[in-house]
Design a protein that fits this description.
mainly alpha
Length: 77
């Protein structure tokens, strides 16, 4: 069984990124700095392999980051 490709979590983005990264560079820098800081603050080494699993706080921050990018892209629409 082949290794699963990890892609940017921004909606409709298919850019491959390392598993430790939430988004590609373009989308990551669309995220407001305060949200980017929360994503990194709650990131735990090894969570990409689910050991330990991502925290609820990380999931909340990641969801905010994804929503922030989606809102900015909709504004450009």
């Amino acid at each position: 069984m082949g290794e699963r490709k990890h892609t940017c979590h921004a909606r409709r983005c298919t850019v491959a990124v390392p598993p430790t990264m939430l988004m590609c560079r373009k989308h990551w820098f669309m995220v407001p700095p305060a949200i980017r800081s929360r994503v990194w603050r709650h990131y735990r080494d090894g969570q990409c392999n689910l050991s330990p699993p991502p925290s609820e706080e990380w999931h909340k921050a990641a969801d905010e980051a994804i929503a922030a990018v989606a809102a900015k892209e909709a504004d450009r629409g």
